[in-house]
Design brief:
By secondary structure, this protein is α/β, with parallel strands linked by helices. The protein is built from 8 helices and 8 strands. α4 packs parallel to α6 and α6 packs across α7.
Length: about 220
């Protein structure tokens, strides 16, 4: 199935959305799609998808980020190239959206065009092992806050529940009831479960729609 032209990943800090965005962009590029990945996290300029720029470019992904990324300058700037998300429809566009509702406000300036084009996915990334999203009610509150700030409705959930390097197949399996409850409470389908590539074989056939990921150097684990 052809992917949405615009794919947005949003969630609380530490949800793993940046690592998922990197892996998803590389997956699309590996399937032959022209891909651009934009870092729209203007709240946290020190933790960036740009950290994986060499890996992304080697995989055929164009990287868009603020010139202040990975510097000691704390300036919330949207790179001009990010406007290609709505102005250039010749490539798939993947965006790493800032954590929480404050970070999502950067996305709001693109909202009208993204929604009117009607070819987007906005994924709510959840991790039941993080303190801010331990319950389905926490996730529901986060969904509402981010949607209000970004002015773009979520379309699906990505379950990225993990315990860092201590994550096992059982860790992921134990998170599935939580992810399913979040889907029920939010009204969003559970579209993917993201897992470290080393444990993906153990979960094959047990978890639907696995996204097997390499851990990039930006992952806070």
């Amino acid at each position: 199935m052809k992917p949405a032209r615009v794919t947005l990943f949003a969630g609380h800090y530490g949800s793993g959305k940046s690592n998922i965005a990197v892996n998803y962009a590389l997956k699309l590029a590996g399937e032959g799609y022209p891909v651009r990945l934009a870092d729209l996290d203007i709240v946290n300029p020190y933790f960036r998808s740009k950290d994986s720029e060499a890996q992304l470019r080697a995989g055929g992904v164009e990287v868009i980020s603020s010139e202040f990324a990975n510097s000691n300058v704390d300036v919330p700037v949207i790179p001009a190239e990010a406007y290609a998300m709505t102005d250039d429809r010749t490539a798939c566009f993947v965006a790493d959206v800032g954590g929480d509702d404050q970070g999502a406000r950067a996305l709001g300036r693109f909202a009208d065009k993204v929604v009117s084009e009607g070819d987007y996915e906005m994924f709510l990334v959840i991790n039941c092992y993080r303190p801010m999203t331990r319950t389905a009610e926490d996730v529901l509150v986060m969904q509402r806050e981010i949607e209000a700030a970004a002015k773009i409705p979520f379309t699906a959930i990505v379950n990225n529940s993990n315990l860092g390097v201590a994550t096992t197949a059982e860790t992921v399996l134990d998170s599935l009831p939580f992810a399913e409850e979040c889907a029920r409470r939010t009204g969003l389908p559970l579209k993917m479960t993201a897992v470290w590539e080393d444990i993906a074989p153990e979960l094959a056939g047990k978890v639907q729609n696995l996204l097997s990921m390499k851990l990039s150097n930006l992952q806070i684990w």
